[in-house]
Design a protein that fits this description.
CATH topology of the largest domain: Alpha-lytic protease prodomain-like
Helix content: 55-70%
CATH superfamily of the largest domain: Cation efflux protein transmembrane domain
Structural class: mainly alpha
Order of helices and strands: HHHHHHHEEHE
Strand order of the largest sheet: 1-2-3
Number of helices: 8
Oligomer: single chain
Shape: elongated
Number of domains: 2
CATH class of the largest domain: Mainly Alpha
Largest sheet: 3 strands, mixed
CATH architecture of the largest domain: Up-down Bundle
Strand content: 5-15%
Radius of gyration: 31 Å
């Protein structure tokens, strides 16, 4: 509702900075709705063909919110550049009033999200990024209003709007990059595959480590799969538990798939019971005797 009020105020006061901040506030409603819907779906457990549940929906929502930030920033920038050549008269005091109200409203939302721990959830980080940009945008609106009211510099309004547009695009960069990294199933930044492979290969009883894969399902949910060749005579079950414990304690990954294979480099002797006796003759199945009655 406040975003719609800002739209009306921006049109009435002739401020592109206020209109840009208003458009961003309105888009925040959609961003938060997307984030909450994705978080709600992510709470559902795995079922049927959805073996990982709905966790990836959070990442898709974060990507949508990041792309919407870029689109919004470009729209604000285009309108601001158009007004730079002939800046219209702006009511500075009115712009200041709306800017202060925006700082108060969006600041309260940012504090609430930080207390909810949204910094650790990529999806909610998207909504948080929107709201933080809103606070900065409202601050820019106040600055533009002060410059217009004090010095009569109407061009300050589109100049500030360009700054808000740049902030939208910059704040979306990390969000989009992280979302794309997860969707492409690249290894998390905190987990180095080479180091993990070296650590596992140094475990007593391990001959070789191969097919090591590390990826992120959703925020806070990393997965690892690896094939390990064990030396001859090693207790494979004990080795499996040792490897899983090392992966969890040293790297913090609890969702693991570790396959332990034998060292097949020695010649194999394959025996099948009864082969030395030669194939047994096939016998016809017994016939059913007819009942004479």
């Amino acid at each position: 509702m406040f975003g719609l009020a800002q739209v009306v105020g921006g049109l009435y006061l002739g401020s592109v900075a206020l209109l840009g901040d208003a458009a961003h506030n309105v888009s925040d409603g959609f961003a938060v709705a997307i984030a909450l819907a994705a978080a709600s779906l992510a709470l559902r457990g795995a079922s049927g063909s959805r073996t990982f549940g709905w966790g990836r929906v959070e990442i898709l929502a974060a990507l949508v919110n990041g792309l919407s930030l870029v689109a919004l920033g470009l729209l604000i920038a285009v309108e601001a550049v158009r007004r730079l050549d002939d800046p219209p008269a702006v009511d500075g005091l009115g712009v200041i009033a709306f800017g202060v109200l925006g700082i108060a409203a969006n600041g309260a939302a940012v504090i609430a999200m930080l207390r909810a721990g949204s910094r650790h959830d990529l999806n909610l980080r998207g909504a948080l990024a929107h709201t933080v940009v809103d606070v900065a945008g409202s601050g820019g609106v106040v600055v533009a209003g002060v410059l217009v009211a004090t010095f009569g510099w109407d061009a300050a309004d589109p100049v500030i709007a360009l700054g808000v547009a740049g902030l939208c695009i910059v704040s979306a960069r990390g969000l989009i990059a992280e979302s794309v990294r997860i969707l492409l199933e690249r290894a998390p930044k905190r987990l180095d595959p080479d180091r993990i492979g070296t650590v596992l290969c140094a475990v007593p009883g391990v001959v070789e480590v191969h097919d090591l894969h590390i990826w992120t399902i959703t925020s806070g949910f990393d997965a690892l799969a690896v094939h390990v060749v064990a030396a001859r005579g090693v207790d494979q079950h004990a080795l499996l538990h040792d490897l899983e414990a090392i992966i969890e304690t040293e790297f913090g990954v609890t969702h693991t798939t570790v396959q332990v294979d034998r060292d097949h480099r020695a010649p194999l002797q394959i025996h099948r019971r009864g082969c030395a006796e030669g194939p047994k003759p096939r016998t016809a199945p017994p016939r059913l005797r007819e009942d004479p009655s």
